[in-house]
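Teaching assistant here, posting this on the class forum so everyone can see the example we discussed in section. The complex has two components, and the goal was to see what a joint structure prediction looks like when all of them are supplied at once.
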Amino acid sequence: MEFLVAYGEVAGAEKLIEIDGTVDMHPGTFWVDKYTISLEEIEELANRGEKFKAATFANKCVAPGFIHDGWEDCGTMPDCAPGYREKCMAPLKPWIKMGMIPTFSCDSYLVASYLPSLGQTCAWVESSAIPYVNAVLGARSNFDGCFQTAYLGKVPAYDLHLDENRIATVLVECTADLKRDMDYDLFGWAVGEAVGMDVPAFVGVGKPTTSQYLKLNSALATGGQVYMYHIPGVTPEAPTLDAAFRGRKPQKTITIGRDEMRRVYEMLNYGASDDIDFVYLGCPFYTIVDLQKAAGLLDGKKCKSPVWMATNPLTYKAAVDMGLKEIIHNAGGRLISGACCGLLDGEMPAGSKVIATDAAKQDYYITGVVYPKKLQVRYGTMEDCIQAAISGKWKGEWR
Amino acid sequence: MAEEKIVLKGRKVIGGVAEGEALVSKRPLMGWGSVKVKEGMVVERNHPLYEVPFKGKVLVFTEPRGSGGFVGYGRTKLFGTNPAAFLYRRGNNLTVFAAMNMEVPTVTDFDRDPTEVIETGDVVRVDGDRGIVEVFKKKK
């Protein structure tokens, strides 16, 4: 409670409110070091039968990240070492005993099988998840899911918990025809850079698929800090454009089109050589439909460059059952769950100097993660990346 | 000739008093891989502050962006590579958590944009409790 009160005071919140929705948190970590609860204390709570008050889901582990499935043949250390996974899992056991559901995913909401409803109060984490909970589901969350919010079932009431801060202020007119998943990645990044922390309303963006929402949301909260947006007629808090702005006039109107998206593409796609050492896919973690598509592209092929595809542990099991893992492995690729290269402190096949990915977020962070090592990153569609894995050469270009 | 002094008024995030030379970013700061906690510097590619140490500086910036790993700015405290003070135009839960870890004078929501008024190299005195920031412009 001490932490929530201190946090609320620093944030300027007037009160704590009950979580009637869900919690999504990075297991094993705390937001503020001096309010860390030791493993011994958590074990004691768990053994006493204490439970999290809210339905609580595990986001991916960040300290350390580790591969949950598919580590046996990832070929990289420390994840490939026998016993490493058990060692990483041990401190999370009492969290699970207290009720944390082991989804272990940056997009845990896709496999949670239990979602908050419109207007419910939540405490979530993760760049792509915060716009999802606020904009797509219409539930309410800041970026603050953690042990304390789950255990006490309360959260400071400020920012996105207040009606006022959910109203659109910037009108974004999209002049490009957003078709490919990559288009939503590039559009999201361009919007994020242009509007920063504001709440935009989009016109001309169509009806995004789940994969496209993942791209849009992760890019909005990486290129910028968009936690809430509206798509009039699509997202639940904006049946109309007028409703998105609550009848007010936009504070500003901007246009994002092919030129702005191309500028982002050029920033993300660079390399002195067309030789590709490694391909990483699944940021945010691939959905089962993404895996189906990727496996279809790899079916019967042999990859010249190593390729990793990441998903969450539950979808991994589905992919095994459906034979998708086998197809990916037969082509020389690897399916993993619960972690990405960025979370693994840049762990990737040895000697990777030029990598390829289809995710703006992974692309942009990975160079900082591996610093001071240098890395060049090629960026494109899933098809561009898989083509690069098969041929060992980058052929993607702006289209 | 007297030094030019400008006073900014903002809202307290973390109290205390500090003084130091300003390091100003007119672009948002980003955490996770883009901040090196032990070295106390930004390594976001394309960022104007790339590899510029912020230890002991009054770090002035526009907004946070990106991952919850923004809290890394606060964890610089563990390695003594933290800024002397933390000033930003606009924040959210990420700046709050970073500030709570850093425990240095932190002020936001100013009467004017601090990244417009303060330039790198200006001497800045921060009174976190009162939300007052005095800026002594560097001689030109």
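For the discussion questions: DSSP finds 15 helices and twelve strands in chain A. The domain at 269-391 of chain A is CATH 3.30.499.10 (Aconitase; domain 3). Think about how each of these relates to the inputs above.
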